[in-house]
Design brief:
It contains three helices and eight strands. The chain is α+β, with helices and mostly antiparallel strands. It is found in: Cytoplasm.
Length: 157
Amino acid sequence: MSNVVTIVEKLVQPIVEAHHFQLVDTVYEKEGQSWYLRVYIDKPGGIDIDECVLVSEQLSEKLDALNPDPFEEAYFLEVSSPGAERPLKTEQDLQNAIGTYVHISLYQKIDQSKIYEGTLLEVTDQTLTLDIKIKTRHQTKKFERQNIAKARLAIEF
């Protein structure tokens, strides 16, 4: 499966760059009886449906022209926005998220919790620093990057 994702990312990257979009993620997965190829794109200010259709059509043409076909099964192609709570997967994603509200999930509990949300203050090679609100107080907390399972943007309530 990772081979398919690699092939698709090489095909879609020039398309998104030509339109000044960003490739956020590519996922090839089975749900029930069906396979889905999901490509998530974004740009500053957000991506709209017409831009998703544009990328979908151009990518579909390139996928249809592949020989040999890397897909063993029929699949559904979905090109969409990653949403308001988009994942932060790359170093650039993390750097761009400084000053915004984020959600992190940890591999191991720290202070009896594996989930934290707060404003991302700093990103280094080793740590992420968040300003976390606990009841009425703010606390600055550093998290070792090796202990972070997932990071994404979050909506603050």
